[in-house]
């Protein structure tokens, strides 16, 4: 290992530490501008805080976070303590594989006795004892597979070492269903791509535009987010919002007059920069105030719609912020379809990070993952960073060093820490469920506005959520989980560590899924009912929810797409050609025809896009009464009822995103300022999009290479655009 | 060519780019000219073989809109290949043609000749696969939901399929239903789609055929609901307005005959005045036998006008009374949607030859004995000289749409009032876009009301105001709105000249005609109905902006 870690050259224009999202853009831009770039990461994966993991890696990551002490030791001021600082960024991590609550027999293996009797032995022995105890009971009735052995071993480890983050219930007993569930997760480990900081892209936001203009987007595939829902406290309902012209047109929740008011406001927002007189007076006032008093959107539904469209992570957005964000949203609508958001496949952050790294590497950037770092060398006199020493003892020099906070030396970290007045955290939860929480809508986001949830039901005084809780549901179509599973990412800003992530988020989760053992969460369907109804059935009871205004033709999954599908109708044509060939072949020949060399159309998965149900689907014979029925459907609202999904796996954690309000470097009396050629990248924020990080990367690049073009298009190896 | 709908035009290109483009085009032009020469050769050589076919293929790839080449290709195919081919070979050839068209259609989905060639293939084939065509065109509409070629072709396929299922009415209805649902899907995706709305209107008629009145009313309500949602979502979108207008429908306007009179006895001259410009075919004048003579419109065009005069042929003999019979079929309105609702018969006395007022010809006319028969109550049909029968009396229908017609005036009024109030509500939020439609709706309502009622006056006043507003909103059509306004003002100012006839909504001359009329300073641009002015002695048209004096000829004749 040591040999492969040795570098031929040790002097670079720039060294980047950490493959977090922002650094990867900077690395790509620097390499593209002809700079020599060395990019190192102590992790064995790309993406840093935006990494994406399979099941095994997620559990490994959780174990590592939990088992690393974040307490600072007595070390040299220049020492890099990556592992400690990473561990410090994550708090109150807790995860659980849930027991399946069915009436059918589920054997529970009590662990209290075995844990009690082995209280005082070494951890290894205790784990062994618990493992044997479970195996003895479980494997008499089941053939132990590789995965079941691993599952038992993992559960035993968690039960024996509570500090690893297992939820309390798992410490006393395990059940057969838990073991089987974990087995299944381990078997499918590679089908999962869990995002540590889930996000989306605006179809016409800075990042998407950058991906297109630089040509980097062609490495990526996307799906469109289908809908946005908002939770309404008064009615205790999660409602799909009409967030596009088409949705507004078919919406039943809005009256004609409200439709007009809303559309008028949206028309204004697209062009708000040229109509300053309308909003100038409200510039620094809360956005909601402007919307209500200047545009008369006082109705509850309208307010929710504007919130669904304009919320960008900031609950205290000013009119200026709000309008900007509504405009990006509206510009994004319709670029690739009836949605403003794109969701990259195979895990959001890590795919993007890797795409940028790939470009950097193409232009000569050197990449090394899992590369340990020892310390920074700083010329204290000149206040200049000089080099970084890695685990092999090589001294790596560069003119510029760009890193995330975990790669700072103890001294540098303390400098930033001292400047951070306002703490900021993001509470996260990853949930895997057995069905969609939104019926036929599988890829969607939901917002729980601030103050809409009671965090401590039954207690006084009531505590409400101080920040919006965002939920992003992903489906198998995004290649982040198997097709029969759904991932719900739940997150919210959090101002301190007083409440743990679980407390911040559970109230919202309860409105969407059934959490086994939590009587306040939605009721799970009776087993028979659940078995009878397929995952996406309709018309079933769902007490607390009403997901009205579903799109008329949204029964199928949205097709996948690439970024060049906007103007390039060729894609659609190819699709037509293929579909037609198929049709042709089917009708002409009964013998199977060898498939043609298909163009690499990303959309080849879906035979037809969701929006065209009419032509393709066989039309069932309609009676005259059916006409009446479908006619009422014409005014459109099939209220989607969805069966409440069960939470199978939950993981909570709180990620630190604190950052000094005052931008660094700033003159300071008692602390040595950071070296001037050191750039520290901000931690990932909690907003839904990547726009802030993208803008930061651009700013860093422009500071380092003034006057140079930021990620110009990468030339094609062969230009095949002409005919 | 991909869809250009809703796209901004590309910015002007730099000179270098333009030059490069020109050079590229020059090459293409040369290639094309060579091909064109070979086409000429081809046509002259009368070759019907594979080589000839290949030339057309190459040409059509370059220029699919050159329809002559398609014709040549068909000739080659027919004479060179198909005439002697068995069914199987023929089918293969047609299938090949379909594939060829298909490929090219993808590049140029709006080429008439390609769609046309496709139809030719299918119609010539022994077993055309219409179902496959339907799926194909569905895909094209997915590519561009507003390609009217695609919609047109779709309707064509449906017609073919329906033809096959002539006997199975259920199948046809089911198909119409599924097509109707298809339009719903497309409209939900993007309602700014004239083709989809249009197709919907054609299908609705078919689907509603056998339904009861209540069921129809349900459908109509549902359609109004749908279109209103579109209008409120985007009032600037004309396609939705157009559908709303189609749903409202247009009340047939009744042509009225204001009166008829003898104006000269030797030779006999009879005048008939209509309330709008018409063409008359062969009205006849007789007592017991047809009276020889000729009908001519006054004014510059003797075949077109609102005032018609019968002049007796020299020497023709007539009795003490003359009957003038005008059949509804003999009167053609210039304006669409107008109709003479029933035959009209005047019995004019020719005995009283004491006509005091006949001397001054200008604008003076004495109404003879004005006998307007209610033709429906006549004994037996009126028979024309050529044996034609006026058997049916066309009642004006109060049409809600072509989909539902109602015989009840109340239904019509209720519907219009409901729609007008909805539009008025929208005007409060959107002061500009709905004005045109409001004006149209009010005119429709006006047709249902007696001319002298106060409600009619209010509507007229409002409509005049709306025209003035439209001039400021839409100055490009200023003259059109000015003319409309002039018409409305003229009608308001001439109310004393006419009265409701016994048969509403027709009108006739009032019993007491005013002698003088002052129309000065009314902003008139023209005199819309000159027949109103026949009886006037003086007419003051000072300070107007009348653009044409043609109307004067009617009066001077």
TrEMBL record, chain A:
Region called Disordered, residue ranges: 524-560, 583-626
Keywords from the named record: Cytoplasm, GTPase activation
Low complexity: bias regions: 524-536, 601-621
Organism superkingdom: Eukaryota
Compartment annotation: Cytoplasm
Keyword Cytoplasm listed: yes
Stored Pfam families: GDI
Family statement drawn from the similarity comment of this UniProt entry: Belongs to the Rab GDI family.
Name of the molecule in the record: Rab proteins geranylgeranyltransferase component A
Naturally occurring in which organism (per UniProt): Linnemannia gamsii
TrEMBL record, chain B:
Alphabetical list of InterPro entries matching this protein: Leu-rich_rpt, Prenyl_trans_a
Sequence segments annotated as region (Disordered): 1-20
Signal peptide: none
EC number from the UniProt entry: 2.5.1.60
Catalytic activity: geranylgeranyl diphosphate + L-cysteinyl-[protein] = S-geranylgeranyl-L-cysteinyl-[protein] + diphosphate
Pfam families: PPTA
Keywords: Prenyltransferase, Repeat, Transferase
Organism domain of life: Eukaryota
Gene3D superfamilies the UniProt entry points to: Protein prenylyltransferase (1.25.40.120)
4Fe-4S listed as a keyword: no
SUPFAM superfamilies named in the record: Protein prenylyltransferase
UniProt family annotation: Belongs to the protein prenyltransferase subunit alpha family.
Protein role: Catalyzes the transfer of a geranyl-geranyl moiety from geranyl-geranyl pyrophosphate to cysteines occuring in specific C-terminal amino acid sequences.
Name of this protein: Geranylgeranyl transferase type-2 subunit alpha
Protein source organism: Linnemannia gamsii
